[in-house]
Write a structure and sequence with these properties.
With about 500 residues, the chain is mainly beta. It contains five helices and 32 strands. It has helices spanning about 20-35, 115, 210-215, 305-320, 490-495, and strands at about 55, 70-75, 80-85, 90-95, 100-105, 125-130, 140-145, 150-155, 160-165, 175-180, 190-195, 205-210, 225, 240, 250, 255, 260-265, 270-280, 290-295, 325-330, 335-340, 350, 360-365, 375, 385, 400-410, 415-420, 425-430, 440-445, 450-455, 460-465, 470-475. A four-stranded antiparallel β-sheet has the order 1-32-31-30, with no helix packed on it. Helix 1 crosses helix 4. The protein is globular and about 65 Å long.
Length: about 500
Amino acid sequence: MKIATPKILPNISTQNITHKTAFFLIFFSIFSWGCTAKTNSNKVDLPYSTINPQAIQLDLHPQEEGIGGLITIDINDDDQKDFIVTKPGHIAVYNHSGKKLWTKQINIQVAGHPNQQGLPGWHGPGIQAADVDGDQKTEVLFLTKDNTLHIVHGVNGETQQTLKLSSPEGTERWEHLVIANFRGEGDRDLLLQATNAEGYRIGRYLAAYAVDDLIQEESPKPLWTRDDFIANAHNGARVADLDGDGIDEVLGGMIVNSKGETLFQIPLKGHIDSLFVADVRPDIPGLEVVVLEEGGKQKRIIPGNNSISSLGNRIVNRLAPGGNRIFLYNYERLIWETHYQHQEPQNAAVGDFDPKRPGLEIWCRSRYNEHQKPFIFDAQGKLIAKYEMDDVAPEGWTNQGVEVIFTIDWTGESKQLAAAKERHKSGDIAIFDPISGQFLHKLKQKADRLYVADVSGDWREELIVLNGNQLHIYYNSEVNPNPDHPRLWTQNHYRRSKMTWNYYSP
């Protein structure tokens, strides 16, 4: 593939932009946009895939509000991955073959817009599962909107423990929970997170507990608390063992260790849109965190509060240096930060999309409401490719592009791909090559949720789609070229990420 060379806009300081210049820019931009509206008469002709999914009928109302999600985990301890689906007021659990294990009608803490309604945000499942008490059986944990923690038996959903919680002053309730290992005793700890109840809600409040203390003590004391966590604006906190010592760290704009202490903090100008953890740089010990920034150095050069002044200020801030950066860092330092013309990256996928290059690549979707223009960086933060989604999307695909973008190990080869659904609709799903943008598989769907995980057991990953009140699971029936590859579930950060995903950070 011939790599496109980016056209870098000149470094224009807002201090030198006069009102007259700014209004000229508005006029010029409006005129230009009107004259260069994107139309594509060369849409890719890609027929629908003939892969037939496994279908599981769910005992759930097919309501669609963007609230609630799904995870896969071994619930009944038979070494096979099962399915948990959450929606407002409902939890449904099905085993690997599609048999219903149990359902609950309960006011589980799931939410839509996190900055207005709190965590876990769009598509966030709001549920965790692990052996948290050491009895060699899986428990399921979730919060309800009355600020109660529920621990139930994974195999049948029967209540093991309910604990009324108190949340910090200035919060509405605890909204997000993450199973963690903070004491070196396995999945026996719990991280709770809450947003501020008033204003633009961000999950700055954290509390870590030993699950045994929650179960056994009348007034359990936290291992540690914080009220200043630099959180992802649209997602709940994630945890992972970054330094390989067997203990989890808490990941956000700051890295917090198992004792609640700050290890490192990035120099944000805006806020975090999404966050990922991976071994982006194998030459550096441990794992790295990838963060996408929204906003930053924004100035109001043009006075007024109307559509013209708003448009003009957006143009000025696009031309001026500022935020909208991509960060790569670990538990002790910033490795690099970069940007593409300070365009907002918004959503990403991180993976080995070009095995000829060292490390992993970072695909950024871009913010455009229509006609998305993805750009890709290598493990050193260098721009290596960019293209327009209109030029690669198949005929009939929405011009609003893609959303819920997962990295996927679909083929079993070293090259990873990306999976996504049609944006802003219950539509089709696809697998595409992030480097070239080529769509490889298009699957006819009315996808409300998309999730990617290894459920077959051959280490390759499957596409799991929530379509109304059905789950559809797509398997790759082709021969696995690397059958002896270790299962991805053996990786700590993979297990953690598959239970803490949402729309912005799959």
